[in-house]
Automatic annotation (TrEMBL):
InterPro entries: Fungal_M35_metalloproteases, Lys_MEP, M35_peptidyl-Lys, MetalloPept_cat_dom_sf. This is Peptidase M35. One of its GO terms (molecular function) is metal ion binding. Residues 360-381 are annotated as: Disordered. It comes from Roseateles puraquae. Residues 1-39 form the signal peptide. CDD domains: M35_peptidyl-Lys. Pfam families: Aspzincin_M35. Its cofactor is Zn(2+).
């Protein structure tokens, strides 16, 4: 190390102060430059994940802290469902265990197309902080090394809202977990798959559902409406499966909702609707009336076929046609892992049409695109 003689200590202190000032100024410029860089790229939101510690021992809850910061000099708008809340309402996180995907077990929701009340404004330089419990929506029952990332771009296509992603993963080591606690959903999915195999062996079944049960204090009139909605959904699924069993080609109906034609993608859509048809015709459906949210049509838990929770917007929808009761049930059926395991990348007809043009792969993974294909309103050949 080189050593220097300083004949005037006060100058040394002054130099130290100057050095500190330069460091602080450089840091300020770095922050400003970062904000300008993000503004230029259109990415203003920085998401950081932290936890109380890197090791989770025993069957305890897993909490992560989420900080969302607007790095730009202007306010940014996001959709409320892009942000964490007390109750998980979508797959906001990507979780892997020992590099293998961890399935999301929380609800997947059909929402109405976003309106002004669905947006949240994040002021320039502001940070929103959340604490989220993950074991209620992701399977943390096994021991191992978990990587957790935040990725909130579902339901944003065509909305103008900015997407949010954490730049790096946060890692946790889980030990001493009871693996039996995560087995129930797997059993339910296996039973559903077995029922579908039975249905596939009897393709001429035409009845609407093997049985319908009701939970959540459905009234008599609601039960009657739901029975009619199941019939409408069954008809939609039967018609769609029949259409896709015809000669594959770039038909207006197909390309409108699923984008550029390829035989592989056509066959994927066909597989989704054949499975949905079989489920509507022969599965035991459970319909729940407990949700009253006026901005939500319905939701399901993808690992729990075939229970569908209908909400406030459902009751105001027409029985058939665009965003109908029958179409809503088709939308929700597609979410079940045993059917199509679809997501919600876009809400509403215009956003779904745009998604099909820009990203056919995501259109085939979007429940609203399946619903609008089934409803076929306006009619396309």
């Amino acid at each position: 190390m080189r050593r220097f003689f300083n004949p005037r200590p006060d100058r040394g202190r002054q130099g130290a102060r100057m050095t500190t000032w330069f460091k602080l100024t450089a840091a300020a410029f770095a922050v400003a430059a970062s904000g300008a860089s993000h503004a230029a790229s259109g990415e203003c939101l920085d998401v950081r994940l932290t936890s109380a510690g890197p090791i989770v021992t025993g069957d305890v809850d897993v909490h992560v802290d989420v900080a969302v910061t607007n790095l730009c000099r202007t306010a940014v708008q996001v959709l409320r469902w892009q942000l964490p809340s007390d109750k998980m309402s979508g797959a906001l996180f990507r979780v892997t265990r020992d590099d293998a995907p961890v399935r999301y077990t929380g609800p997947v929701i059909k929402r109405a197309a976003p309106t002004a009340k669905d947006y949240v404004e994040i002021a320039a330089g502001a940070t929103l902080n959340y604490r989220v419990e993950l074991t209620g929506a992701y399977d943390f029952s096994k021991n191992g090394r978990y990587a957790i990332e935040f990725q909130s771009d579902r339901g944003t296509h065509g909305s103008g809202a900015q997407s949010m992603r954490s730049p790096t993963a946060m890692y946790l080591w889980a030990q001493g977990r009871n693996e039996k606690l995560g087995a129930a959903d797997a059993v339910a999915e296996t039973q559903a798959l077995n029922a579908m195999a039975t249905a596939a062996a009897s393709p001429n079944v035409t009845a609407a559902a093997a049985s319908i049960s009701y939970t959540g204090a459905c009234t008599s009139s609601q039960k009657s409406t739901l029975a009619s909605a199941v019939t409408a959904a069954t008809n939609y699924a039967v018609n769609s499966a029949s259409y896709l069993s015809g000669t594959p080609s770039a038909t207006p109906r197909y390309t409108s909702w699923f984008g550029a034609y390829t035989l592989a993608r056509w066959n994927t859509a066909k597989d989704h609707f054949v499975k949905a048809r079989n489920a509507f015709q022969s599965a035991a459906l459970t319909l729940d009336c407990s949700c009253t949210d006026s901005g939500t049509y319905a939701y399901v838990y993808p690992t729990q076929p075939y229970k569908i929770y209908v909400c406030g917007a459902f009751w105001n929808a027409p029985m058939t046609g665009t965003d109908s009761k029958g179409g809503t049930l088709v939308h929700e059926m597609m979410h079940f892992n045993v059917i199509a395991s679809t997501d919600d990348w876009a809400y509403g007809q215009s956003a779904a049409l745009s998604l099909a043009k820009s990203n056919p792969t995501k259109a085939l993974d979007n429940s609203d695109n399946h619903e609008y294909f089934a409803e076929n309103n306006p009619v396309k050949n």
